[in-house]
Each structure stands twice: as structure tokens, then as C-alpha cells.
Amino acid sequence: MEYNAKFGPSAQTPDQRRFVLLRLLDAIPSLRTRATPYARQLYNRYVEGEMSWHEVRQALNMQS
Questions:
Q1: What digits encode the pLDDT tens for the residues 15-40?
Q2: What are the residues whose beta carbons fall under 8 Å from the beta carbon of 59, sequence distance 6 or more?
Q3: Do residues 37 and 59 make contact, with C-beta atoms less than 8 angstroms apart?
Q4: Packing angle, helices 53-63 and 37-48, rounded to 10
Q5: Domain boundaries, given as residue ranges, for the chain
Q6: Between the CA of residue 4 and those of 1, 7, 28, 32, 49, what are the distances in Å?
Q7: Which of 10, 6, 20, 2 minimizes the C-alpha distance to 50?
Q8: Cα four-point dihedral sign 4, 7, 13, 14
Q9: Which pLDDT score, from 0 to 100, does residue 53 have?
């Protein structure tokens, strides 16, 4: 597996990104409770490696 600087050292695979996302959702409950279908779609794109967490946050901020 080649290192991708778009993701942190602990988030290089989909499983690792899923774990990071779950930790974020546990740490910041409003990410889960206020998650729209659009936000959930972005979360899935993060897990799949299509977007970085920074890109997810930017997209959510633009929507607000």
C-alpha cells in the first residue's frame, strides 16, 4: 500500500478511516445527531477514500 498524504498515518485504508470516523462521531455527537443524508453520503466518501476529512468539512460548511 502506497502512503497517501491526503489522509493521516492512521487512516490509510477504508477500515482505518471507518474507525477514525466512528471515533469522531463518538467524540462529537452532533456529527451523528445532525447528520443529513448529504452528510452521511460525504462520510461514506471519506471512508472510501474519495475525500479527505478536510474536504468533507468544507463541503458541509458550504451547505450551511
A1: 999 999 999 999 999 999 999 999 99
A2: 42, 51
A3: no
A4: 160
A5: 14-63
A6: 9, 6, 26, 27, 10
A7: 6
A8: negative
A9: 93
With a pLDDT cut of 70, the percent of the chain lying above it is 98
Cell 492512521, residue located: 10
Q: Which residue has the cell 470516523?
A: 21
The percent helix, strand, coil of the chain (3-state, each to 5) is: 65, 0, 35
In sign, the C-alpha dihedral spanning 15, 11, 20, 52 is: negative
**45 touches 17 (CB < 8 A):** no
